[in-house]
Amino acid sequence: MRTRLTELLGCRHPIVQTGMGYVAGAGLVAATSAAGGFGIVASATMPLDQLRLTLRKIRARTDAPFGVNVRTDAPDAEERIDLLVREKVRLASFALAPSRDLIRRCADGGVLTMPSVGARRHAEKVADWGVDAVLVQGGEGGGHTGPVPTTLLLPQVVDAVGIPVVAAGGFFDGRGLVAALAYGASGIAMGTRFLLTSDSPVALDVKRRYLAADVTGTVVTTRVDGVPHRVLRTPFVDSLERAGRVTALTRALRNAAAFRRASGLSWPALLRAGRATRHGRDLSWAQTLMAANTPAMLHASMVDGRPSAGVMSAGQVAGLIDDLPSCAELIDRIMTEADARLTALAAVR
């Protein structure tokens, strides 16, 4: 299937695997790209040296193109972009809008750019700045998300910008791919669906928690890091939702201390990270501390396999998934379903 996205990225199929912290490492990304999709490394939870090693591991497994997600507010963001340029990585994706300087740095080095957006005005802004594509995530998506569903947000953005648009939030099969194409998107991006594959590094017990969820099994909460965050509903998350100010602050301090020990950060460095998260937001100090140590809560679930002690970002689509195929099996299934759906639509016409 040829679309503007496959031509831009050089992949065989218009299916993107998103950069999920502690999940989208060398194994998952290489498996996705080798199967004809486009894998994206989650570098926000990796030190620079680990990112460098991850790129080499991917290249040892496949010569297919892939991308890297970069935090625009990371203190070493420019160094990471320079690494992508040196390693000839195809795409830099961004959860937050990149600065004009970062976009220019990528363009000068031959690296494509694709920020994620949750509003039409954000898409228009970054398109004017010269990005190559935008990923549009509707409210059904996991992790940080907005209130507008994909079916309303996607056509708005497609009509507003002239660059390839990738649709995210609620996609898991070939029907969804065809629906996104019908709206004018050039492809789809999936996080939860790729997390629930045999190539994903997440522990089996954690995957079973996802598989057991129904479509009402997620919740959008601000109690994780101060901004709307869609996660699986668990007793731990429910306790965050019920906690009063004193309890929330106590838990935040305890989690921050654990994160400080695990990361090796000093208390001043941790507080500086907390202040950075407060920029432009009306957050309590409890929320600020929680934001600073959110990686620790993700690590507890995604890496340590302890869902009772952490949070699990999840799209509502988790309630529609009931198996753990390989990335190759998943992508082949999606493309087969999409072909059948397109044939059926042609017959209707």
TrEMBL record:
Question: What Pfam family is a match, any one?
Answer: NMO
**Domain of life (superkingdom):** Bacteria
Entry keywords, A to Z: Dioxygenase, Flavoprotein, FMN, Membrane, Oxidoreductase, Transmembrane, Transmembrane helix
GO terms, molecular function: dioxygenase activity; nitronate monooxygenase activity
The membrane-spanning stretches of this chain are 20-48
What's the protein called, per UniProt?
NAD(P)H-dependent flavin oxidoreductase YrpB, nitropropane dioxygenase family
